[in-house]
Design a protein that fits this description.
This protein is of the alpha/beta class. The chain contains 6 helices and 12 strands.
């Protein structure tokens, strides 16, 4: 099932304007990244950056093109879930950042889902300040999608892709945020994935234009939508969305 509102070929938003950053936060971010450097881990380069509360977040950078893309994983997953797709985006000329939410993968702390958006905000700052990519897309799977919508409600981005994002999960809610996301939005979920399809529909209904809803077959969730089943279709939807809104950059 496809529901799509009219989307202009050129969206006069973040593609041409970067969000101002707080000097102190930016300075801390750059100093940490410079001190830690990066190491080649075979696929991408490992990086470290700080969340607002000082927690160190582990990430990985792929490619050196523009614009930037930040990929965020599901609850109980890690950034490795995105590696194959990150490599695909890098080949297509994007700079890509994956990262482990706190309490996941190599990042420290506990699984504080209710503040997952603060980790994603830190990833966005890293992309803009350290990688010098002011124009950025946010893509999130499940919990990561909810966090992406919250961040996009207060930061100017090129667009947001939400894969199986719940309206709310363990204290993290996009219910009051999604209508404030001014950039283009793509919601994707599988019809057999519990509440995922109905939550995608609800978020789509609350969101303003431009927006697009795609309900695919099967019951895969989050980044698993990129494996088997309708994976080719889902990858195509995301890539088409990114190409549409990178126009003119």
């Amino acid at each position: 099932m496809k529901i799509k509102t009219p989307i202009p070929r050129f969206w006069p938003g973040a593609a041409r304007r970067a969000v101002p950053l707080a000097f102190a936060a930016a300075a801390t971010l750059v100093l940490l990244a410079t001190a830690c450097g990066s190491s080649d881990s075979g696929s991408g380069s490992d990086v470290l950056f700080q969340a607002e509360d000082g927690l160190v977040i582990h990430g990985r950078v792929f490619g050196n093109g523009a614009p930037g893309v930040v990929l965020s994983h599901m609850l109980n997953g890690d950034q490795g879930d995105w590696t194959t797709f990150a490599e695909t985006l890098a080949v297509r000329g994007f700079s890509v950042l994956t990262f482990d939410f706190r309490g996941h993968g190599k990042s420290g702390g506990g699984k504080e889902v209710g503040i997952a958006d603060t980790d994603m905000s830190a990833a966005l700052r890293f992309m803009r300040v350290r990688l010098n990519r002011p124009n950025v897309f946010l893509i999130g799977a499940s919990m990561g999608g909810t966090a992406a919508l919250k961040v996009a409600s207060r930061e100017e981005v090129l667009g947001v892709v939400s894969l199986s994002a719940p309206v709310s999960i363990r204290g993290l809610s996009a219910l009051l945020d999604v209508e404030r996301v001014a950039s283009a939005k793509l919601f994707v979920a599988a019809e057999g994935d519990g509440k995922a399809a109905s939550d995608a529909q609800r978020l789509f209904d609350l969101a303003g234009d431009p927006k697009q809803l795609e309900i695919v077959g099967g019951g895969r969730h989050g980044t698993d939508l990129l494996k088997g089943g309708d994976a080719d279709r889902v990858r195509g939807l995301i890539l088409d969305f990114l190409e549409q809104y990178r126009v003119g950059l």
